[in-house]
Fold each of these.
Amino acid sequence: MGILPELKHRFRNALAGFTNAPEELLDQVRRTQDARFGDYQANFAMPLGKQLGRPPREVAAEVVARLDVADMCHRPEIAGPGFINLRLREQWLSERLIEAVCDPRLGVSVEAQPRTIVIDYSAPNVAKPMHVGHIRSTVIGDALCRILRFLGHRVISDNHIGDWGTQFGMIIYGYKHFLDAEAFAQAPIRELSRLYRLVRRLMDYQGAERDEQDGIEDSAQDDRLGELSAQHPNINARVLHETAKLHAGDAENVALWRKFMPICLREIDRIYARLGVSFDYTLGESYYNDRLPGLVEELIRRGIARESEGATAIFFDHPKTPMLIRKQDGAFLYATTDLATLQYRMETFRPDTILYVVDHRQSLHFEQLFAAARLMGYTGVELKHVRFGAVLGEDGKPFRTRQGDTVELEALLDEAVARALQIVSANDDQKPDGPELSPEARRRIAEIVGMGAIKYADLSQNRESDYVFSFDKMLAMNGNTATYMQYAYARVQSIFAKGGVDVEHLRRCPGPISLEAAAERALAVELLRFSEALELAAADYRPNHLTAYLFELANRYSTFFEQCPVLRAETPQLRQSRLLLCDLTARTIRKGLELLGIDVVDRM
Ligand code: ARG
């Protein structure tokens, strides 16, 4: 058990008799910001004093008199208006550290009341290349899966891919009219993306033409587009027609869709393999197609949806905007599919929670979806839009290529790895005894460092904010980056290699851990906060609590390493004790990074 749950447990006992609603007060038991006041503090004496109509200091003194922490803390101190300051005993810390050393879970306990949690994330619209916008959902969703699973929850990951929308109408149209058969035979996905882009450009072109009849630039490319556009007027309607035919089961279009799908899936799977991301299910939009008509009828029958101007919609008090579920022409929408998906998940997985890791621009959609779910009677389930902001370029605008196109995800991964390779190589070249790494090893390490940098940069943000994508910042050797953490890990491994340390043996016979030096003690307290950080990350689905923790841990390790000789410690016992601190730090960093989907390397 972590420090904080243990302290809360003790305070809960002490508070019995003062209040029968202690939980809110217990939220006021926290880590101390300023080390001079100890390690943890309880700040509830003020609100409690108010409740009881008594001076807070007096109340604090009485709580402390009933508080049983003698084994765990030095004598509690009451400060100012009634803050209770706690300083953990070194003996107690040392014992907990030894427990963590001997525990594959590093002292993190398994959730006593596990929940069943469905996580809906990544969910690209296939048939077009994945772009930078997909990184956030994929990386945040994957980290949440790993963290929640490690804490003991039953996690079901489901990639709700867009495999049924207009983009298929677009490539079907493109395939029928613009196919380069040879190119398709050679590299199908590239040809499909070309077709997708071409049709996209035509749609945009005609959209622009309608918007501003006279304002179109006449570049050479637009000339060609203009010509094509003249041959394919009303392309929007034609594309919609192809999509509608697909949805209605038209044999030719369904056959094309069947031909395209494996190609599209192979493409996204390749990227997932590189990112180390996998899913329990990939039930895309198409999976629910057959259920849509019945669902709409059911909702009408139950009085949840009604017809309005030929269309069908669900109306709410809040949000004010109704949710359209069937258009006048009979077509179903994204929202209809999401309702069918929700129903399916509730019946199949019986979840306690469903998380939707999706862009904040879809906030209204999810408000509507959740309101509709309540009307359908799904009241016991926690439905949560785990939303996130945009990825910006260094100019503060949405991240684009110099030509103004969206940045393809793969190109981004390649560039991160190329830059990581430069850094790893330069670092290796500067080693005092000359380079240690083969070109092959450098490449392998660069892949891990590059992926880690991109993921960590994303995960370390408050997910609701936009963030600026910067290769230089994310690959910095110093600062809140994966590179810094990976480097700290590798440094420990190199100490072990240099000292010829047998880690297995070290872990099997952990001697007492000495916490006399301030830097040792500070590191120890942080090591024991791992479960606290994970709980915090899980509480509101925010992986940045875990990155913040790892950064603090790595910093404290760095101070410890500067101030406390390890291999050359004064006594064999002290050397052993410090090696244990090093090892536990490395294991905690490795586990923490693993829960973020990031690997480590022994040398870099
Ligand atoms: N494919 C959608 C998009 O790209 C995201 C789907 C998110 N999940 C969901 N159940 N709506 O916008």
Amino acid sequence: MVIANTNIIFVAGLGGIGLDTCREIVKRGPKNLVILDRIENPTAIAELKAINAKVTVTFYPYDVTVPVTETAKLLKTIFAKLKTVDLLINGAGILDDHQIERTIAINFTGLVNTTTAIMEFWDKRKGGPGGVICNICSVTGFNSIHQVPVYSASKAAVVSFTSSLAKLAPITGVTAYSINPGITVTPLTHKFNSWLDVEPRVAELLNEHPTQTTIQCAQNFVKAIESNQNGAIWKLDLGRLDSVTWTKHWDSHI
Ligand code: NAQ
């Protein structure tokens, strides 16, 4: 996908990985970049606008835990303005294994509901034009950080959901791929709670191993967007971009 002249919605575009990725996206000249996030950051929005005056950058407050009907209303407003949307990026996530329900609500249900809501506008069975979904999951969805089993399971869930979406593309016209960052230096990984405090030093221990910067992650993120491969499972770790081949252990045959 050539980013120039497209319309993009980025959920959680103001986070550590999100904001640097928005910077890279804006440089490539989309027509519109619509950022949805829980908390507004006018300085960041102004900075993005200043990078490329040709790009219309807009912000709407959005909490992914709202009912799907609320999401549909917001999307209706956005589609009314933009007419078409080419790419939806779902990036909201929290890392706190003391907050079990909230982890599932944001990392899993929020992503599923936002995807479900945009289908109303994109599904070819409803006369829609199709579209592309890019879900930010995590390498912990491949192999868990077992000290945060709730977070890791929520990420395994979105990796799985995204792979199903990709296989449903012939029916819906909507393609999908996952972006799976390795440990990236952001507020998320600075300090966090393990499940039942099984490892109070989990953040420190993780950060003793090599990590990547948000800029490295963002540069590979836009490469993955540009390569636009339905069903791809991208690993963005240690400054590299690799496509992961998923091992098949079972087949439904349907
Ligand atoms: P950061 O905390 O900066 O960003 C999280 C974003 O989610 C923010 O924009 C925040 O406002 C938004 N958000 C949170 N709750 C929300 C809600 N209810 N509604 C709407 N938005 C909400 O963290 P980040 O590192 O930039 O994380 C961005 C995404 O990348 C998350 O989905 C995160 O799980 C994922 N990710 C991060 C890392 C990392 O190392 N930073 C990794 C993989 C995936 C391997 C590593 C981990 O899985 C962490 C151990």
Amino acid sequence: MKKVVIVFGTRPEAIKMAPVVKTFRSDPRFETVVCVSGQHRSMLDQVLSAFDIVPDIDLKVMRPGQTLTDVTVNVLQGVSDVLSAAKPDMVLVHGDTTTAMAAATAAFYQQVPVGHVEAGLRTHNMWQPWPEEMNRCVIDLFARWLFAPTETARTALLAERIPEERIVVTGNTVIDALLIASERIRTDPAVKRLCKDQFPFLQPDKRLVLVTAHRRENFGGGLRGIYEALARLARRGDVQIVYPVHLNENVRRAASEILSGVEGVFLIEPLEYLPFVYLMNRSHIIVTDSGGIQEEAPALGKPVLVTREVTERPEAVAANAARLVGTDTARIVAETELLLDSPDEYRKVSCAESPYGDGRAAQRIVETLANF
Ligand code: UD1
Ligand code: UDP
């Protein structure tokens, strides 16, 4: 039996690792230890309960207003202690958060091989996204297994001279998670009703624009640009703008300053995963700077406008399922109105092919490690 420690700590890692945890835990070839850093608290717990995952270890590192240094130091020390006690054969981390980088580093220091889920995403700009571009580059430097979600990611890794035999293209595990959630909403009327009942304010005759925004490099002017655009779009009167506001105080302050009380804009608390998937399905357009949502929207046939200057997920842009619109107010308004007012444009984007996987990424990861 191989012993694997799986570490994650934020909402998106939890969503994307949930199918991986489930697959490992149901496989008798592995002893699986789930260690959450608790870099996020309530947003992480929402996902753990949605997927019925009880972690074996919780490092509880989150502090209000935490710095990158706080998170790095606490996760590095906490995971280091866990690995000393557990002595695993391998450690799995996900993506580009500070939890992932610090946990992988702790494993590297103890010479425990690391598997990196969602390897090879790159903008080639260390400041966008910051600090995530650094985090993922560091993990990929020494990971023993690089689970690249797409061929594009694999090509990026090969260009960095990472040995080919370490890379496996799996698809993105977010599609596994999305399919699990969609199936539960589709097949369980009680779940569907619970989701629907959370949004009594939605009007069938108005199109829903779903928004999220939280990137550190957008704090300040970037967020302001996005929020001014939402306020202008709301004035049209034929849309409802729903924005579950991330719990980061920098985001909340700016959102309430510019958007609270604006008619047609609904600022709500972060949603559990199932109601959020329900809302994505119910939406007409999604405006976001989120990584995960850039991958989910094309799989649901929803046009996604990405409020960033660059993206490490160029596949959706190339497939015309996503448009990179930056944070300039006029540009966001113009691109959103184009989709609202031109049925032809809308059709082109919503019919684009989804490039991020088939829902079997977790199985491929487990098989690779079982056969190693
Ligand atoms: C983190 C990740 C980012 C990821 C994002 C997903 C890093 C450097 N950043 O950014 O890559 O895209 O999560 O959402 O790893 N907070 C709460 N409760 C929560 C979560 C956050 O109160 O459940 C507040 C706390 O005040 C916390 C702050 O948000 O200190 C910032 O959280 P942090 O994880 O450091 O940064 P994010 O911006 O969430
Ligand atoms: N999400 C959620 N509830 C919300 C907003 C987002 O469950 O209120 C999900 C979303 O479907 C996606 C993930 O959270 O799977 C994205 O997380 P986030 O945007 O925080 O981080 P990123 O993907 O940018 O790292």
